[in-house]
Specification:
The longest helix has 20 residues, at 19-38. Among the domains are: 296-370, Tetratricopeptide repeat domain (Serine Threonine Protein Phosphatase 5, Tetratricopeptide repeat); 377-461, Tetratricopeptide repeat domain (Serine Threonine Protein Phosphatase 5, Tetratricopeptide repeat). It is built from 23 helices and no strands. The chain has 461 residues and is an all-alpha fold.
């Protein structure tokens, strides 16, 4: 147990998330795994409060690094011990329930996440009251889930409940209240209601400037997200203007190599790419990459995301060999840190091979990505289903229509279960299925699917 206590003590000393902390945690995780193998079974049956807290710390570390199964193992140990030592409705026990729900959310197991959040919510309401900050945190996170499922109206309903509670308990200009305002803006953004999103971001911005100041990182986050909206509206010059405002503030408040600063540099590269200024985009990506490598290291997932995006520019330019070279660099780094984003690079390499007409090779890489996603995220995770969908498209391009229909139907069933019938991905797959049935002369099936799609898109639905 001494090794356990030493490791936990070192991790608990990291009071604020930072890039150095991420690197330290990455170095410690193998020691945690080795320690666990040599701990007697009775030690893993945790019961001492201090030890239970340590188990939660380890769970949070694995969670942060995308090791969801290992994170869940530690949370389950903590939960079992806390239920026994403190009771099922103790606030500390409910914190663990809440954290387990968060893992199911990250895994795309939205129904299971909601089930666990509902358990945490019922306990918090009973133990703490409906307007307690912990209760409202759970309400807020359930709103996040509904948003992830594409149930935007339901998400807004739950955000409104969280907002009303937070305004009552904390005040309209409290940073946590403004966080909910900010999240509601995100939902309007996802609905494509950009003007309404900007209206709510402006409310968050005004509150943030008043409560925190114009150069506070939270205020700048809102400035940054408003830039994203302008980019989506195709107002690239305005987006750059607001990104520059965010960038100047981040550099002043946080420094040139802080992740928020580098995120803004990275997003400015995206704007230049959308403007067709590929060389300028590469220049800004290189600036972001140099910063990430310095701040986080060459194998940090965020560093590798930039490598990945640079590969995508070479892809857009038709430089497929160079794109593959950069994707392979991203893949090598991601494999070293065993992060779920490894599979994203495998997936995108499959896309490249498909674009090159190397269908057999593309299929091989899609199958590799699919096997990994199913293991890491589950068969009904939206990302897993995206790969199923793309494999269907590949079969369609090859003229293997029966196989394409089979895989589109698999994707459709999964999307309906994971995201619901109203989600854009579900309806896109339904549309493709209808078109494919029509292409092969299966008129009756095509008309049935088209009628179903029309019913879903009807304003009276």
């Amino acid at each position: 147990m001494e090794a356990f206590e030493i490791i936990v003590s070192g991790l608990q000393s990291l009071t604020q998330p930072s890039t150095a902390d991420w690197v330290f945690q990455q170095q410690v995780m193998p020691h945690i795994n080795a320690m666990t193998k040599h701990m007697p079974p009775q030690c893993l049956a945790l019961s001492i409060i201090k030890t239970l807290d340590g188990a939660c710390v380890l769970g949070s570390v694995f969670h942060r690094h995308g090791r969801y199964n290992q994170a869940m193992e530690w949370y389950e140990r903590a939960l079992a011990g806390r239920e026994k030592a403190l009771g099922v409705d103790h606030p500390t026990t409910l914190d663990t329930v809440h954290n387990m729900a968060s893992i199911f959310d990250d895994q795309g197991q939205y129904e299971k996440a909601l089930e666990w959040y509902e358990r945490a919510l019922a306990g918090c309401e009973k133990a703490l009251g409906v307007d307690h900050p912990s209760t409202l945190d759970t309400v807020n996170n359930m709103a996040v889930i509904f948003g992830n499922q594409g149930q935007y109206e339901k998400s807004l309903e739950w955000y409104e409940r969280a907002l009303a509670g937070r305004e009552k308990a904390l005040g309209v200009d409290h940073p946590t209240t403004l966080g909910t305002v900010h999240n509601m803006a995100l939902i309007f953004n996802n609905q494509g209601q950009y003007e309404k999103a900007l209206e709510w971001y402006e409310r968050a911005l005004a509150g943030g400037e008043k409560a925190l100041g114009v150069d506070h990182p939270s205020t700048l986050d809102t400035v940054h997200n408003m830039s994203v909206i302008f980019g989506k509206q195709g107002q690239y010059s305005k987006a750059l203007e607001w990104y520059e405002r965010a960038l100047a503030g981040y550099e002043k408040a946080l420094g040139v190599d802080h992740p928020s600063t580098l995120d803004t540099v990275h997003n400015m590269a995206l704007i230049f790419n959308n403007q067709g200024q590929h060389e300028k985009a590469l220049e800004w990506y290189e600036r972001a990459l140099a910063g990430w490598e310095k701040a986080l290291g060459v194998d940090h997932p965020t560093t590798l995301d930039t490598v990945h995006n640079m590969a995508s520019i070479f892809d857009d330019q038709g430089q497929y060999e160079k794109a593959l070279e950069w994707y392979e660099r991203a893949l090598a780094g991601r494999e070293r840190v065993d992060h779920p984003s490894t599979l994203d690079t495998v997936h995108n390499m499959a896309v490249i091979f498909g674009n090159q007409g190397q269908y057999s090779k593309a299929l091989e890489w899609y199958e590799r990505a699919l096997a990994g996603y199913e293991k890491a995220l589950g068969v009904d995770h939206p990302t897993t289903l995206d790969t199923v969908h793309n494999m269907a498209s590949l079969f369609d391009n090859q003229g293997l229509y029966e196989k394409a229909l089979e895989w589109y139907e698999r994707a459709l069933a999964g999307y309906e279960k994971a995201l619901g019938v109203d989600h854009a991905d579900t309806q896109d797959t339904l549309r493709r299925l209808a078109h494919l049935h029509e292409s092969v002369g299966q008129t009756e099936q095509a008309q049935s699917l088209q009628a179903r799609l029309h019913a879903l898109q009807s304003p009276h639905n």
